[in-house]
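Notebook B, p. 112. Complex prediction, attempt 2.
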Amino acid sequence: MRPQTGWLSLLSACGAVLLLGGATSAPAQDTRVGNLTGHAAAGKPLYVRYCAGCHGDDGDAQGENAQWIDPKPRDFTLAVFKCRSTPTGTLPTDQDLFDAMTRGFVTTNMPQWRPLIPQNRVDLVAYIKTFSPRWKRARAGTPIAIPPEPAATIQSILHGRELFQKMECWKCHGPAGHGDGPSANTLTDNKDNPLRPYNFETGSRFMCGVTNQDLYRIFMTGLDGSPMPSFSDQIQPAQAWDLVHFLRTLQPLNTPEAAIWRAWLATHAAELKPIGPEGGTQ
Amino acid sequence: MVKWLLTMALGTAAVASRPTPALALDGREARLAVAAYEVAYATHSAAIPAFARKYGLRCSACHTVWPELNAFGQTFKDNGYQLGNDRDSPIFQNNAYWPIAMRTTPQLHLESTTNQVTDASTGKTVSQAGFDLSGVDFLLLGTLYKNITFGLVPTLDADGTTGLEAAFVRFDNLGNSPWANVKVGKFELDNLLSEKRFTWLSGNGGFLYAYHYLPIGSTNTFGFGDNQIGAEFSGHSIDSYTRYSVAFLTTDDGTPGLPGGKSLDAMFTLSRAFAMGGGLGPQRFGVFGYLGHRPTAFELSGGTPIPGTGTANKSFLRLGATAQLWVGNLELIPLFSHASDDAALGPGPDKPAWNSGLLEAHYVATPQLLLQGRYEVLRMSKQGDPAIPKTQGNADAIALGVRAYPFMFSRDGMALHFEIAMTKTIGTVPLSGDGSGVDPLTPTTAVWSRSFLLAFDFAF
């Protein structure tokens, strides 16, 4: 933490009062979200105010609170981000960073910064991009295309369940999606910090959104920096939607998929093979 | 009767143990004493490092400078002191975590008041100066469970007297909607400009006339800045840009034990913020209103009023509008209010009415440095008794201050606080200083009261 008081800052502040304040403007890396342009210079004091306690003054995830936080905060110097609309291994778009900041991350210490005015959030995005030279070397990836979602049916859900078994999702997320698969305790992030897989039973939101499209995007882009890979090379879009429909049945929410699933289970539960090492296809 | 009402308003224990110079005074002086007492012993609360410790956020995440809430902090409070990340229930906290914080303010201060009537003079300036203490607030707030919030604020005054500033339970997000929340107990009113979270501490600067003034001869005891007992229904948009609250409150100005009558007061607030400009927060506009009642008759036992039997309620009204505007790092907070009391709550045949307005400015140079100023004016528009000069009770108050925070992190906070505040009142002693003082010799004499404060305000 850097001391920020003293006569110099007091005098500066007095001068600024005479000028009626105002956000600073300075050359910044090009950051745009919608009609808004982000300014890194304006984002810096906002970062100190809201973010540095966890992410560190230098963006290296070494803020004074980081030692107490689980999971650990993002290290901006690596420019590796979980929630993206872009293919795995690529940089996220400005909109992705803006959305992540706005949405926060469920079951972590990262809150929803939605109350900040949009300009503040865009300025923060601009400043976060100053921590890694990767932003100067590479451009953001091209957002993946998400085809229209087909209607959820019991066939779609059952097929998704087969994929959950076949793709071995259960090894981390557990047979019932409770985040308790046999590999769950061995997972680490890209900095070797322990990481727990997502528990579908407790979370009202997903790590990167709330909609079916968000869920589709998660396993087609992967969560970079975590063990959650991208499945874009392994499953087709229609299969991905089937998986989405099945995963929705694992949440304690009254989703359309859950309603279809419960109705089918009432008469067909005995036909299901268990998910897990002994499981097979339906 | 007045003495009894005053006793009820202050509480038996408080009257017994705190300085009570007005207990033997007539109605006009008692009115002054009640208001001055409430101001002098008003506690400043609600800078809560326990939340910072729980969530690992710096003070500056929720406060423009603590204790004033910023937009994020307002949303956090509106959501029942929850971040909403499915980790708010205490079951997710380490067993060693306790939701408690403490705040107090060792200080050096000077108070002076002009035109005081003493045994030796009819217009003497009385001054006090020296090292002193504020009380201590014990801030226990947090969640009992997901979407069940509690608050408990015991207080310890500098003279050793204890109190209970707040005690409530709140049910949040009913039906999974942020628009439906219910709070029951004793709590701060949903004031858009909060006296509990503002950045003024001195005898003349640490309160608002708009929230505490009562006209000459009033037997009313209500203060907007006083915590009240009742139930509050409130709601907000997911970012708290739109907020409302409706509260129903007992008619005792926060005094427990149901000493008054059986009627209820009602209060509402409504505000809307807009994400305009590039300042530190959104531009918020709001209105508020309070319709209260106070009994004017009681059942008697041996000539003594029986608590809780108040009847013949007479009403009073408070209406106002305020805003929170940002220009870069400069925050402007204007507030206007109109107030009136029923004639039966005053000294004569007329309904007293008055208006007040203020403009408060904060320059938030950094999360660790605040420069601030405030000017407030109060003007009587009608006295309760035609014999009272129209200007008597008028007030002008100005305050300037600096708060510097030498460090900023998520475990505690300290501010070096410097403040100068002055008030001028006509024909009455200001609601300021240490709560003592007497009216000037004539109803048209101006009384100046001044405060100088250098304090170490800390919370852990």
